[in-house]
Amino acid sequence: MADLAPISGTLDGLILKTLSWGPRHGYGIARWIREASGDAVVIEDRALYLSLHRMEARGWIGSEWAYSENNRRAKFYRLTPVGRRQLARERDRLTSYARAIERVFDAPAWEVGS
Q1: Which residue, of 10, 38, 39, 44, has the fewest CB within 10 Å?
Q2: Which CATH class is domain 11-106?
């Protein structure tokens, strides 16, 4: 399967969902999304960290420095209560959007413009 970058407007939701399972550092977030998507969705470092910093500024996530599983200092991100509420909104928004896209792709030609 081809590597896909997240579609515009989906990255925050993917990261929030990842953090709903517990704190993770940046590499762990990207790896979880890649693995959960069957290696289809690959997040570029720049996009990941821009999103993390934006969400931290909005209060959706918090962070703290700690040591990773291979004893390296890393910044770990965690979901805040505000972020958990935002995750629910993102899930509703993205699910509705995905269903609308699916309806477009599944619509027979004769229905379009009727």
Answers
A1: 38
A2: mainly alpha
